[in-house]
Structures are given as C-alpha cells and as structure tokens.
Amino acid sequence: MRVSNPAGCSVEEPPSDWFWGTGTPGEVVTLTSPYGSAEAVVDEWGYWEATLTFAGAPVGEAFTTEVAGPDGTVWAFPFIVADPEEGTCSGSVEPCPPDGCDGGPAPWPLPGDQSPAYVESVEFLTTGSNPALVSVVVAGWLPTPCHTLTWELTDEPGSNLTLDLYSLADPTGACIQVLTPFTEAIHLGEFAPGSHTLIVNGLRYTFET
Hints:
Number of helices: 0
Largest sheet: 5 strands, mixed
Helix content: under 10%
Order of helices and strands: EEEEEEEEEEEEEEEE
C-alpha cells in the first residue's frame, strides 16, 4: 500500500488535510489524529482518498496524523494550522523519524526556503554483484511547477543510509498552486551482498543485493 499527503498545513476554518493512496481493492485505511479520525476503503481501481478535519486544532502547534494500513504499517504525517492573518502556508514540517515521534514534530517552519517533496513511490535498480551498483527511482509531487527537487544523501558509519528529499523555490515569486509530478533516479553507491536499508523522508525501505 502507498500513502501520499499533499499539504501538511492549512489556513482554513476548520482546518483539514487530504490524503490519498493506492492498495488492494477492499482494504481499509484508518486515519487518526488528536483532533479527528476517518476511514477509507480502497476502491475497485486500487485507489483511496480521505479528507480529515481537525476541529479545535490550535494555530502554530504541530501535531501528527497516523495513517494505518491493514498489514499494520503506519505512516506518520506532521500537520500544522497556519496563522489565518498571514493567509498562506510556507515552509514544511519534517516527517517523524523511523523510530516514532516521541520527541514531538519538528519546529515550524523549516529554516531557509525549503518546501516539501511528496514521495509516492520508491523503486530500487541494481546492476552487477559483489559489489552491486544500486540506484533508487523516486516519484512523487512538488508543491508547484516553480519548485525544484533537491535531496541530501547521508551514509555515516554504523547508521542507515538516509535520503531526505525537499524542494526549493523563490519565496518572492508568484506561481500557480498546483501539484507537479517528478521522477528522479538517484545513485546510492556500491553494496556488498546482503540486505540494506534506505530511509526516505522518514520511511524505511529494505533492498537486497
């Protein structure tokens, strides 16, 4: 099952967010947050969507919505209600780390001009063996056509390989507010035979070489 969440922020009253994804027809997806919950059923075409309203959510305090699939997998999506006097959502809230959100969501907004990159699918490509050359093909959505995909790949000794994707745009420019698809192949490096882990925007993926 795949889950996507396009906003993570709202200036409306009451605030709400729209979630969608794909799965096996008939599967039930459960969405929960401190300020509301909802369920969605995957339709006959393998698609589901749900709007979650956060009645009573305070302005400026980030919280987390969890989306649970029937296999027990849980995706965590931070959300924040922006100041209605500003009339806009800017910046982004980082996803929860793979080991949970015990420390609370990240501060709002992110420093600098970073905006989200919404990941919809992750696919691994492997060439050769011992060592194998591995790339990852990431597809998803950017907030507007004016945003450019950017990423940071880190591989520190003794830790997992981590890929953080975000987007950049001129904060002073005007741009139509429409989600724009992206597909990017990113070279991960050489890997010995075995099982390896890549964390993409807070979600853990395993690949074999």
